[in-house]
Write a structure and sequence with these properties.
By secondary structure, the chain is α/β, with parallel strands linked by helices. The chain is 28% helix and 15% strand.
């Protein structure tokens, strides 16, 4: 029901703002503030070396290049706070650290036990601007230790959410609107690993096999390499409706 309400609102706002007429061939540059939360300055304590931060931004730019988004690191801050690192105190952390406005991407790297990452959707911004941003497990950056999720694709996936995309398996069934994107094949559940042969097809009566290579699925990092044209269109429309020019 929450998704249905959000989509009804998006449809109305898209029409009012003429976002459906947007030129998706125009590149949008997004300023980035990276907050590296650590318990100490050791690798096991959450310290992410600056070259891994830079490589993360490099991967992000490569993955979104064809989608028309680029990312510029404006500032990197190392925050030594054992409580924030060991416990998910997101409200307190973001209240203190968040920078910029609606079109500013704040990235928080921390320990995040049990998760790879999470984020807020564009439609959430107006209700709680300070909560906006992406949180990732620090060891998922390129060259990190969390194999097979250490090529930087967790950040790409979460930024996809930050730009308005759902999982490709949204709704977890073969009918309905799924992820609200016209060209992502329906599938009943997330795909894990990276099958190279006999691609799964959990919705055989629907067009296309499961999109195992899509950034918004759950495959291993080495498997993820694409957004669809429909996803690109949706990201630009969501950005125009919820993020561009908003304080």
């Amino acid at each position: 029901m929450e998704v249905q309400i959000a989509e009804a609102s998006f449809t109305a706002m898209k029409k009012a703002s003429k976002a459906s007429q947007i030129n998706i061939n125009i590149n949008i540059t997004i300023p980035v503030y990276w907050h590296a939360i650590q318990s100490n300055q050791s690798l096991i304590g959450g310290h992410v070396p600056i070259h891994q931060i830079n490589n993360s931004i490099k991967v992000l730019n490569e993955d979104f290049e064809l989608a028309g988004f680029s990312f510029k690191l404006m500032n990197l801050s190392y925050v030594t706070n054992q409580t924030w690192f060991e416990r998910d105190i997101r409200a307190e952390m973001k209240e203190v650290l968040r920078q910029g406005n609606a079109n500013t991407l704040n990235i928080y790297s921390t320990s995040l036990p049990g998760l790879l990452g999470y984020t807020t959707l564009p439609s959430n911004y107006q209700l709680n601007p300070k909560n906006d941003g992406v949180v990732i497990r620090y060891s998922t950056v390129p060259g990190g230790t969390y194999y097979p999720f250490n090529l930087g694709k967790t950040l790409t996936h979460e930024v996809g959410h930050w730009l308005g995309l759902y999982h490709t398996f949204q709704g977890a069934n073969c009918t309905g609107k799924g992820d609200e994107v016209w060209d992502t094949p329906a599938h009943e559940a997330p795909n894990f690993g990276c099958p190279r042969r006999d691609l799964p097809d959990t919705c055989p009566k629907q067009p296309g096999k499961d999109p195992i290579f899509n950034f918004m699925n759950y495959g291993d990092d080495v498997c993820l390499n694409e957004f669809t044209a429909g996803q690109v269109e949706r990201m630009h429309q969501q950005f125009m409706v919820y993020r561009r020019g908003k304080p």
